[in-house]
């Protein structure tokens, strides 16, 4: 059975059609990278997956059930802008996800619950290489370290699906490569299903097992908002093949043709 499935999925804002006719099936453990021009609806799609954006038409299902209309522990998310609390330490930022989930009234855990959450946070921070920075505050961290912290936050509730919205766009090339290795490692070890938006086609092929291109397949110059983007390319990527760079180059040429 597919983990995530869409049939005739669409998103409209009034008369403005952003996404239309999305049909796909994603199996557990796939790494789907999404590319496309700015404004074509990639982030809107990710928000629909997260549950913060409503569906206009069609179906979007997880485990053959309609996706909940709100975020849940089964779906973790990391944005390009670091979603961390500046007044909390690295450890505090990581624990808070479980505190807010398990103690909605006080937003704080005590006793055995607090100790268990701390142990879980320590495990996540060790996985992302921040075990040496527990008492540091976000402003004391580099960009790469802040993004590692955001990933630790996203993994705290042990999600099955990880949503990444251009998570490496603001990082220097060297740090970006380190983050590629980290996300690949976490994906394999935790058997995650990942959807990642990127503007970098080479990055899409380097990380993904499947590359989607969002674009408009029909257009009306007199009514530019009448039609939305859909998945115009759905390419399988063999991560052991050496011709991924040539695949990326060919796709770039096709998209600009």
Automatic annotation (TrEMBL):
Residues 4-241 form the ABC transporter domain. It comes from the Bacteria. The keyword Transport applies. One of its GO terms (molecular function) is ATP binding. Residues 238-257 are annotated as: Disordered. Keywords: ATP-binding, Nucleotide-binding, Transport. The keyword DNA damage does not apply. SMART domains: AAA (SM00382). It holds the Pfam family ABC_tran. Belongs to the ABC transporter superfamily. This is ABC transporter ATP-binding protein. It comes from Salinisphaera shabanensis E1L3A. The lineage of its organism: Bacteria, Pseudomonadati, Pseudomonadota, Gammaproteobacteria, Salinisphaerales.
